[in-house]
Design goal:
Elements (H helix, E strand, L loop, with lengths): L2 H12 L5 H8 L3 H14 L18 E9 L11 H8 L5 E6 L7 E7 L2 H11 L5 E9 L12
Amino acid sequence: MNEKDEAIIRVLGRRSGLSSRALSKMLNIPISTVHRRIKKLEQEGTILGYKALINFEKTTWPIGALLLINLAETILGKGHIPKKDVLRSLRNFREIEEIIEVQAVDFDLVIRARFQSLRKLSDFIEELRYVEGIEEASSAIITEEAVLPPPFIN
């Protein structure tokens, strides 16, 4: 991966809807080069897809939360529950947008999720506590979300 690929990825990471023409002008790279490099990055699996930026306050899912999940080391009578099994269970919840594995003192996963109300968030946290392999779940409500503009490219 070279500097042009890096620049394309940095801009697309914040503004995925930009056309090749707009990227070309912004990065001062010929449009054919931008188009060819994007296709290559997609084929290699560097670019996995594109995501819309949504104003959730205008939807029926306005409440965003980060859920901090502590996985159990062992479960009485069952032993160790593999993390992949917990992740498989979590993928079934439509509220979950993203699951991030982390190395932290008090939690193992950070989940970004959306809810229709605070009551639904509270019910969801309670439901998570019944997922086999989850020891504890706590939450932080997202009060404001800001999408940063594409970085300045030299």
